[in-house]
Design a protein that fits this description.
- It is a single chain.
- Strands 4-3-2-1-5-6 form a six-stranded mixed β-sheet. A three-stranded antiparallel β-sheet has the order 7-8-11, with helices on one face.
- It has two domains: 11-167, Creatine Amidinohydrolase, Chain A, domain 1, CATH 3.40.350; 170-377 and 390-497, Creatinase/methionine aminopeptidase superfamily (Creatine Amidinohydrolase, Alpha-Beta Complex).
- The chain is of the alpha+beta class and 505 residues long.
- The chain is 34% helix and 12% strand.
- The protein contains 16 helices and 16 strands.
- Catalyzes the removal of a penultimate prolyl residue from the N-termini of peptides.
- Belongs to the peptidase M24B family.
- Its EC number is 3.4.11.9.
- Pfam families: AMP_N, Peptidase_M24.
- One of its GO terms (molecular function) is metalloaminopeptidase activity.
Length: 505
């Protein structure tokens, strides 16, 4: 379907933002939409999800389309498939050319069967033709390799993605309204789960209710798979099984957000599963609340986002040290990065057309080095957009690098370590993106007690094990994990919290 909510002028505004970032007055931007796909060895169609770069320049949530933007003439064209009348019997009608032009924000709408002639004519009419692509796999199929080899057309695969990423970082008022709407729906679904939770016996009931509450509000698609983890499952960051009983558990971490008109929300609440929460559970919940509120209160234009992560991590260290889980001198614990055992992911990320939206030329939190080391930023693949990359891993070394980057303190091994066992110096930290008006970011601190992770790495590490009190830690494993997440709009003077789901236990 074509989203009728898209107001005239929005896609064209996006195209002009991209043109400003490309800094050239000539060339043709070409973006194919998502094609119709079927499961392997099956005639059943895969669930459709529009390519986000294409949608940014077209507003068309329709399969088998393309979009072109002539930089010289400032002309934006949507290309849609022609549907034979007999196909309507099986799949229903698709918008006509006139309907697409009326509902979208482009200058013209044409059928894709005319695209080949258009591209060949464009190339022959230019002295130095250039086509901007996201990558070579998206080269127009209408231009075969022999033609490309014979012609003088240049395929630029280096410039478009950085330009579009930079344009997408700052949201327009219309985009903000869509993210706000997605948050309203997700917050309502979170409230519905909270109100019914006492009647549930299994995680699957939580997932089912959240889905249905969103669908009833015209948001059938989830921005990412629902995470409904109870007990120990709350300590698994990307838990998706959602099939375990709720009995005899302290908390349920519900990380779930719908998308609305292709724009995402990302909301997490930690809900009590008993009226008799342990003192340990209450302590950790209050800690995460404090971490989040301290960071949200500090959001304003010009703030380095990674400094907010350091704020949250330092507060976590202070409380974990006070309750005895961490031991030793706090400064040494901090410089070792041991608090990452319990706060192992980034504070947040951009949100927009993707749950984990693009950051532009500067990184919001982790450096390109760290992303590449995790396999999340290799060229133009989409690994960093998968559900498994929803949160960025923050290692102890990364935390130390953040600290060094903020305060200019050179890293050095803990003086109690032998040289042979000292960790290697962390990579130079280069995440230097400052918050600016129009950015929408998540703020999602968490504290987790994942036995396998803590015991398998930190308690075996000469660098970390002497900073953790094993007996005191044992008292907290039953907490599982606590995470609280809101979507925050950076305004001219501060922030607006777009998420209204309650978080008081």
């Amino acid at each position: 379907m074509m989203h009728t909510e898209l107001t005239h002028g929005e896609a064209k505004l996006h195209a002009r933002k991209v043109a400003a970032e490309l800094k050239t007055g000539n060339g043709l931007v070409f973006l194919p939409g998502e094609p119709t796909r079927t499961w392997e060895y099956s005639d059943q169609a895969l669930p459709f999800r529009q390519r986000r770069y294409f949608y940014y320049l077209s507003g068309a949530d329709l399969a088998d389309c393309a979009v072109t933007y002539d930089l010289a003439t400032d002309h934006l064209t949507l290309w849609i498939p022609y549907v034979e009348p007999r196909q309507v019997l099986w799949n229903g009608r698709t918008p006509s050319l006139d309907e697409c032009l009326e509902k979208s924000a482009v200058d013209s709408v044409r059928y894709t069967r005319e695209l080949s002639a258009f591209l060949h004519a464009y190339i022959h009419q230019q002295d130095d033709p250039i086509i901007f692509l996201l990558d070579r796999t998206q080269a127009p199929v209408e231009l075969d390799s022999d033609f490309l080899a014979r012609s003088l057309v240049k395929l630029d695969v280096a410039s478009l993605k950085p330009a579009m990423d930079e344009a997408r970082v700052i949201k327009t008022d219309y985009e903000i309204d869509l993210i706000r709407k997605a948050n309203e729906i997700s917050s309502a679904a979170h409230r519905a789960v909270r109100d019914r939770l006492a009647d549930f016996t299994n995680e699957r009931e939580v997932e089912a209710l959240f889905h249905s509450e969103c669908a009833l509000r015209r948001a059938k698609r989830q921005a990412y798979p629902v995470i409904a983890g109870s007990g120990d499952n709350a300590a698994t960051l990307h838990y998706e099984a959602n099939d375990q009983p709720l009995a005899d558990k302290q908390f349920l971490v519900l990380d779930a957000g719908c998308e609305y008109a292709c724009y995402a929300s990302d909301v997490t609440r930690t809900l009590p599963l008993t009226d008799a929460l342990s003192s340990e559970s209450r302590t950790i919940y209050r800690l995460v609340q404090r971490m989040q509120q301290a960071c949200i209160d500090a959001v304003r234009p010009g703030v380095l986002f990674y400094s907010l992560h350091l704020r949250a991590a330092h507060l976590a260290l202070t409380v974990l040290h006070r309750i005895g889980i961490l031991k030793g001198h706090p400064d040494k614990i901090w410089l070792a990065g041991t608090v990452a055992a319990f706060f192992p992911h980034g504070l947040g990320h951009h949100i927009g057309l993707e749950t984990h939206d693009v950051s532009g030329r500067d990184r919001l939190l982790l450096s390109r080095f760290e992303l590449e080391s995790l396999g999340l930023d290799r060229g133009n693949n989409n690994a960093s957009r998968s559900a498994k990359a929803k949160r960025q891993f923050v290692s102890p070394e990364t935390l130390v690098a953040m600290h060094s980057g903020q305060y200019g303190i050179a890293w050095k091994p803990d003086e109690t370590e032998e040289t042979s066992t000292a960790a290697a110096p962390p990579p130079p930290y280069s995440g230097r993106q400052k918050l600016g008006p129009g950015m929408v970011v998540t703020v999602e601190p968490g504290i987790y007690f994942c036995r396998e992770y803590i015991e398998g790495y930190f308690l075996r590490s000469d660098r970390h094990k002497h900073y953790i009190d094993v007996e005191q830690l044992e008292r907290y494993y039953h907490v599982g994990g606590v995470r609280i997440e809101d979507d925050i709009l950076v305004t001219e003077t501060g922030y607006e919290n777009l998420t209204s789901a309650p978080k008081v236990i």
